[in-house]
Design a protein that fits this description.
Shape: globular
Structural class: alpha/beta
Radius of gyration: 23 Å
């Protein structure tokens, strides 16, 4: 008996009928989410402050509540971490997802409620499997084990039963015990704090397991896979796990890693499914292998709003609910959730490619861009430029970061790209030219600033030594978990740190 087909029929497939409602009833589903969230939080300190009991429409909701960033909610988070309750959400908050920091803090600590775990994060994981099985009805996913690569956690301020750490670690800590029968490595190993000994321990535990699927961040999973190939002397991963069929990935864009994965997983039957599971919530899942866009998950404990990219940083940004967005336009995502985040701007930018159902691509970060000279370069532009340059020169990029070089005494300026290659281009100068030309094609502002080299000069590429970005993260104490390389930065803060290590 195919256990995967049985589980799909009784557990996963019925959910697909609900997801079908996304196509024609998105607005209704989202309004129900908003009403449920507001009603539930009416008697919290926050709910009383904004008189949630009298809010009945989205128009009233957005008129009454300001847009929030971490700086605004930090005082509430501080009190929650100290043990106070019923501040932002009525149920007890005992978990805090540690995320990359802000201007004033090394780390953010985002509240995670029991509801958020179950109506958002775990629900997202189940739906990712359901959508995958719909596309692959002959899957043998549950005939073997799932290798889940996560971070670690620690006690929160020595408060009883309260944890702070990577979201992935919080999910592993609280997962249904039955899942542990189909998951590797052991919980003890999965939650190890230090990344490099964790890699060795995972390899030892899983080398002889029947792993059929992977879940994790592409960059860190790649490190693990290469470690396992080196340890075993094998050339491809299917020599170790012959039944491997899918990698559920998220956290960073997959584009820079795609060719490297093709080299180490050579099976034509291998699938890749992008997911969008952030510390703040689970937002999207790729539901079509031929379409890189993700399906926006709209019946979770999340209400979505969107700010046009050009309004970011203004005193009174326009905000739109899902039904009001336009296709092919960049928006900053704003969420209200069952963890007590209210009109919270998460820092990611997205662009919708479809509205029946709503599908989107991540285009970058509100803080990860270069606009030093009016060029408005975003991560999506960078990924497309690099993909074309790699395709035409045979190159493979491991990691990269870019920043402006500001005007010299001749009023000349440029972008500086620091790139670590797994495979060098056949001609670095041609690689740079293709990258530059593609950026002009996909970004009219960049093209205008580059016109005739009057101000913005041709971009410069500096080759990063092997493991430079790994060592930079290590120097920050950020190996493993959800930690990411800043792809684009409007200042030289990060790239100068990296260049000092590039020796």
């Amino acid at each position: 008996m195919n256990i995967t087909k049985f589980l799909n029929k009784v557990y996963f497939a019925p959910r697909l009928k609900e997801i079908e409602q996304y196509t024609d009833h998105a607005g209704e589903l989202q309004q129900r989410v908003l009403q449920r969230l507001v009603s539930k939080a009416a008697n919290t300190e926050w709910g009383k402050k904004y008189d949630y009991a009298s809010i009945h429409t989205y128009k009233e909701f957005k008129k009454r509540l300001p847009i929030q960033t971490y700086e605004e909610i930090k005082p509430y988070v501080t009190r929650l971490r100290a043990g106070e309750q019923n501040l932002l959400w009525p149920s007890e908050i005992r978990w805090f997802a540690k995320s990359s920091g802000t201007t004033n803090d090394k780390s953010k600590f985002l509240p995670v409620s029991n509801e958020a775990l179950h109506d958002t994060h775990y629900k997202g994981g189940r739906d990712a499997v359901a959508l995958y099985l719909k596309q692959n009805p002959e899957s043998q996913l549950f005939s073997g084990r799932s290798l889940i690569l996560g971070g670690s956690h620690a006690p929160n301020l020595n408060t009883n039963h309260s944890l702070v750490g990577d979201l992935s670690a919080i999910l592993i800590e609280n997962i249904n015990p039955l899942v542990n029968f189909v998951r590797v490595p052991s919980k003890k190993t999965a939650l190890m704090e230090h990344f490099e000994p964790k890699m060795a321990a995972i390899a030892d535990e899983t080398i002889h397991a029947n792993v059929t699927n992977l879940s994790g961040v592409p960059s860190w999973m790649l490190v693990l896979i290469k470690h396992m190939l080196e340890k075993t002397g094998k050339e491809s991963l299917e020599e170790i796990w012959p039944n491997l069929e899918v990698f559920f990935h998220g956290g960073v864009a997959f584009t820079p890693y795609r060719e490297q994965y093709k080299e180490i997983i050579r099976s034509s039957k291998m699938h890749y499914v992008e997911t969008y599971n952030a510390s703040e919530g689970y937002f999207g899942t790729q539901n079509d292998p031929n379409d890189s866009a993700m399906l926006l998950m709209i019946d979770y404990g999340i209400f979505y709003e969107f700010i046009p990219l050009e309004d970011i940083g203004t005193d009174h940004p326009r905000t739109y609910c899902l039904e009001e967005v336009e296709l092919d336009k960049n928006y900053a995502m704003v969420i209200s959730t069952s963890a007590g985040l209210w009109r919270y701007m998460i820092g990611d930018t997205v662009k919708f490619t479809s509205n029946h159902p709503y599908k989107f691509v991540i285009t970058g970060r509100t803080k990860h861009f270069i606009n030093a000279f009016g060029e408005e370069l975003i991560v999506d532009n960078a990924e497309r430029g690099l993909a074309k340059a790699c395709a035409e020169t045979g190159a493979q990029v491991i990691e990269y970061s870019a920043a402006p070089v500001f005007m010299d005494e001749h009023a000349k300026c440029r972008h500086q790209w620091l790139i670590e290659f797994a495979q060098f281009p056949d001609n670095l100068k041609r690689f740079a030219q293709i990258l530059d030309d593609t950026l002009k094609e996909v970004n009219s502002d960049y093209e205008a600033k580059r016109q005739n080299n009057l101000a913005l000069q041709p971009l410069e590429i500096i080759i990063a030594r092997k493991d430079l970005f790994h060592d930079w993260l290590d120097s920050k104490g950020k190996l493993g978990g959800q930690h990411k390389i800043p792809r684009l930065c409007n200042t030289r803060k990060y790239i100068e740190e990296m260049l000092r290590l590039n020796k």
